[in-house]
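Final paragraph of the annual report: two paired records, presented back to back.
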Amino acid sequence: MKEKRLSLGWVELLRPKFFFFLSLFIFSKSPHHCICTDSSRFRSKRRPPELYWSLQPVRDTHEKQIQLWKELILDYCKAQKVFLIGVVEDFPLFSNSAIDRTLSHEARETFLSAIVGEGSAEWLDKGHRKCLILWHRIQDWADIILHFVKENGLEDSLMTVEEIRSGTESHGTKLQGIDRTILMRTLKLLENKGKLALFKRTSADDEGVKFSV
């Protein structure tokens, strides 16, 4: 009888972990675990298991939780062309009204810091209130710009910075709507490599770019 009670005790102890990993497994295998370009469909189809809305104390599950949220944030930002996340501001992924759950400030900072740690984001302030998301790294953006220049026959052309972001040639490309901070950093990288020259025009918002690819 004592042995039976002991075995039942182990069952009760392991039951919460069993259902936790079961929910994680089902979520990872779900056909809805995908990217949707429409933000509302993305939010409804790709959510972490309910237990993942609170920071997990167990090391293994905590690491899995961070990995899931890193992928989720980066995939969402890439699909929706989001470049900046404010930790204390509303962000679609950080709350789910259907189950009345919201990520704590600590959880938001933890997940974003993990993305910063792998080089796919940068904190813009010491207080960790604004995070610049680099779902393409600066070198990758440089390659995209060079491909854009060659594809459009702009090797020896003049353009403004704003034209690269919102001009006719950039419409429908990865460069359309690119964050200005990321764009300027990328252009300066290319300038250092001798691929272009930046020059001032009549205003700071109308800086010129002379390609020499």
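The closing record of the year follows.
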Amino acid sequence: MLSMREFWNIVSISLCVQAQISQQLSDTGHTWNYDDGENDWSKNYPFCGGTHQSPIDIYSNIKYDAALTPIQVVGYDSPGIDHFTLSNDGHSVKVSLPATMYISSLKHKYTAVQLHLHWGDQKRPQGSEHTFNDRRFAAELHILHYNSDKYVDSQTATAKEDGLAVLGILLEVGSFNPTFENIQKYLSQVAYKDQEVQIPAFSIRNLLPVTLNEYYRYNGSLTTPPCYPSVLWTVFRQPVKISQEQLFSLETALFSSNVGDSIPQPMVNNFRQKQERAKRELLASFKEDFTFPIAIAFILGIFVIVAIIIYIIRKRRARQQSESRKRVMYAAAQKAEGTSSIEI
């Protein structure tokens, strides 16, 4: 029987071998997209058909873990550089991030690499990858980090079991977001695949929820090929708002095709469908607040009981009134009969 160390050695070897295969496939020109269906991804990228895949639906059997402390980030307010590189990779719009940004509250130091987005289209403006009880949000922002304590760079870390950590931020339509505007106003300059532009650096912290203490945690994968199961996911409970106009710009400004292509391909619906959670543990850094739902249920219960009581009382009164009318009619009939007999 295999020991745990032997088991993980086999898993690590498997990851390395499949990573090499996926890299070779990428080098030989294999491409992927969302249009042809995600079921085809696994033909060229084996991990995409494997286990521990992302995204998932966040619902039921969620375990509270008191050890999940608030997320702490360094350099998010002041990245230490003057400019970011904004680019279009044909699948999403991406902002490259400096090594001065990292997560400090995990077991290892995870250094930022890039952020990117997933969204829907105008007909179906719900394009988040993670869902809450099958509710899909307008869009989703991912900030990718790699384990810089153990690995020399993100490319090396990508195929490692503990190689990556992603912060997932759900976006919903609401008020105008001035920080998101730092990306949105430059989208027209990276409209086509492989275009990039330098944009002024800004506070990435303002793209995150105000508080970073409520989130879900699970082990998963990259949501795009090669789908390596190497991601420690943190999905924040509280969505961040962007305006309807900002979402519209995201849905209409970008193309997956090159600038010279005869038929431009709009970059829309670039989100992966939910994957099987199976027996994976889903943790929460907070306890679900059942006070409000219980209060609502209690009030509704009282209304139902009162309604039933009123119905019973009204029905009883109606029956009593009916019986009373019958007695009056019977008495009147008897009187009439008695009067009739005397006259005869």
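DSSP finds six helices and 16 strands in the chain. This concludes the annual technical report; the extension proposal builds directly on these records.
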